[in-house]
Amino acid sequence: MTSQAPARERHYLVLPQLGLAYCRVPKAANSSVRYLLARRFGFKAPEAEPNLLPNKDRFWTGQPPGVAHCLTAADFALLQAGADRPWCFSIVRNPVSRLYSAWNNKVLERRPDRPLPARFREMGVTPGMDFAAFVDRVAETVDDNSNIHIRSQSSILTLDGRVLPDFVGRVETIVPDWNHIRYEVRVRLGRRIPPLWPRNVRIRAQPDIAADLPRPVLAKIIDRYHDDFTRFYPHELRRLA
Predict the structure, then answer these.
(1) Domain boundaries along the sequence of the chain
(2) How far is CA 69 from the centre of its chain?
(3) pLDDT, tens digit, for every residue of 133-180?
(4) InterPro entries annotated for this entry (predicted)?
């Protein structure tokens, strides 16, 4: 199965020969997971771009036919309904720390000689803008017009109100959740995967950023990502309310 949709909309990485699928959520251990899959199962960069790293979409879209597919949620749902249904997992992150990480990494730390991604520019984001101003721009932008790093996790993981992955772990509980993923892959697929190597320290759960945010800023984040909170972090929603 192939998809003609833009790579930014193809969140589901399907490895048909392994019977495994992973739904990527940027800023939620995504790079570490893709590096691990490439290393464990011997995936190489496409011949046309031999220096591509596994955290890049083109690394996976450039794999030979039948080796890896990158699908939209709609295409993946069709695949789930078939006889060759892969087992799918994903990882999410507290919406507050995920948004803060996206701002810190993509806006605050960005080198002056590297322009912001087009979607950020269209949102009105400017280099070096403070977090409160960044939250204003995010709050005013719907998912369809958002940069992938700040799109809601629910918009990536659901279709018609249904969560598509079979298991959704959390960055905040990554060790036991990854051990569960390892267990499922071993029992269901007869494959062994190693512990997750935290290649980038940003995948770790950050300190309680919410406690230091002005209440109006936090309220905008909760409103913008309300579905993420209710689906994946209801305990945090109750705590922050």
Answers:
(1) 7-94+155-202, 95-152+205-240
(2) 17
(3) 999 999 999 999 999 999 999 999 999 999 999 999 999 999 999 999
(4) Carb_sulfotrans_8-10, Sulfotransferase
In three-state secondary structure terms, 169 is: strand
Q: With 0-12 CB in 10 A as exposed, 13-18 as middle and 19+ as buried, what is 3?
A: middle
- How far is residue 123's CA from residue 116's CA, in Å, rounded to a whole number? 11
Tell me the C-alpha distance between 213 and 209, whole Å: 7
Label residue 7 by pLDDT band (50, 70, 90): confident
Please give the biggest Cα pair distance in the chain: 51
Count of beta carbons in the 10 Å neighbourhood of residue 22: 24
Counting other chains too, the contacts that 1-9 makes at CB distance below 8 Å and 24 or more residues apart are 1/69, 1/71, 1/75, 1/78, 1/79, 2/65, 2/69, 3/69, 3/70, 3/71, 3/72, 3/75, 5/72, 5/75, 7/57, 7/58, 7/61, 7/70, 8/57, 8/148, 9/72
pLDDT at 199: 52
Q: Which pLDDT score is estimated for 22?
A: 98
Q: Where does 54-125 have alpha helices with state H?
A: 57-61, 73-80, 95-103, 118-123
Rounded CA-CA distance 187/94 in Å is: 29
Sign of the Cα pseudo-torsion (167, 169, 175, 178, in order): positive
